[in-house]
Amino acid sequence: MRPFEDLAAEAVAADVTGWGFGWLDGRASEERPPWGYARLLADRLAHVDAALDVDTGGGEVVAEAPVLPPRMVVTEGWPPNARRARSLLGPRGVEVVQPGDGVRLPDASFDLVTSRHPVRPDWAEIHRVLRPGGTYLGQHVGPRSAFELIERFVGPVPGPVARDPDDEAADAERAGLTVVDLRRATCRMEFHDVGAIIWVLRKCVWWVPDFSVDRYAPTLRALDAELRAGRPVVAHSTRHLIEARRGPAV
């Protein structure tokens, strides 16, 4: 294994825009939920006239779909990701909207609203833009995801459990949607070099909000020592699939 300094410098210099995780190939792994979200999304997109993908990142998951609906819109709030989404999806006729840029999507204008790992689902807005009979399909991050790794840096995280799938389902119902499917998964993550840990903490900035290599050098060096002793750093991601529908017109 290369020296700590080389691995750290490489990870700090690497691009972290978008929602692709290919940089981790061979350096980290994560089990995938059993439902296969990208496949489900591609199937749904092929059978609707108008769809909206919320918090699309760099558009990578939508780009995997071989067929897009005649009207495809995505939203992304972080400018570097929005630029990446325009570059990736623009040639396929996809409209990229940045929240706060003055664009208000029309009421009842989409057959399908989707999101993979939304920041915070706005159920009232989802209900507003869905056509009667339309569907929301999302894969969300669940409670205490990757906390075995996060707490190595920040210590025990007290307080109420955030991102509880039952709470999210109840919020969706209160907004006027009917939840028709809710599935949960816990997925093993393994990191095999300290560069992978640094890179993922730079990408997922909410995990350790004040992260830098200098600030957390003792923790990173302790993890590096474990890895050099042949022990992968293990954490578990939590995910849930939620499908909800807007009722038909009355």
Question: Features of this protein?
Answer:
250 residues, Rossmann fold, 2 domains, eight-stranded mixed beta sheet, 8 strands, 25% strand
| Rough outline | globular
Backbone CA Rg: 19 Å
CATH superfamily of the largest domain: Vaccinia Virus protein VP39
Q: Approximately how much beta-strand content do the residues carry? A: 25-35%
Low-confidence stretches: none
Count of strand segments = 8
Helix content: 25-40%
Strand order of the largest sheet: 1-7-8-6-5-2-3-4
- What's the helix count? 9
End-to-end gap: 65 Å
Helix-strand string: HEHEHEHEEHEHHEHHE
Major sheet attributes: 8 strands, mixed
Structural class: alpha/beta
CATH level-1 class of the largest domain = Alpha Beta
InterPro entries: 23S_rRNA_MeTrnsfrase_RlmA (IPR052939), Methyltransf_11 (IPR013216), SAM-dependent_MTases_sf (IPR029063)
GO molecular function: S-adenosylmethionine-dependent methyltransferase activity
Keywords: Methyltransferase, Transferase
Protein name: Class I SAM-dependent methyltransferase
Provide the fold topology:
Blueprint: H1 4-13, E1 28-30, H2 37-45, E2 50-53, H3 60-63, E3 71-75, H4 79-89, E4 95-97, E5 110-116, H5 123-129, E6 130-141, H6 147-154, H7 165-174, E7 177-191, H8 194-203, H9 217-228, E8 233-246
Helix pairs in contact: 1-8
Domain Methyltransferase type: 52-136
Pfam families: Methyltransf_11
Keywords: Methyltransferase, Transferase
Structure description:
By secondary structure, the protein is α/β, with parallel strands linked by helices. The chain folds into 2 domains: 1-27 and 194-231, no CATH class; 31-141 and 160-192 and 236-246, Vaccinia Virus protein VP39 (Rossmann fold, 3-Layer(aba) Sandwich), CATH 3.40.50.150. 32% of the residues lie in helices and 25% in strands. It has an 8-stranded mixed sheet, sandwiched between helices. Strand 5, helix 5 and strand 6 form a beta-alpha-beta unit. Helix 1 packs parallel to helix 8 (194-203). One of its GO terms (biological process) is methylation. Residues 52-136 form the Methyltransferase type domain. Keywords: Methyltransferase, Transferase.
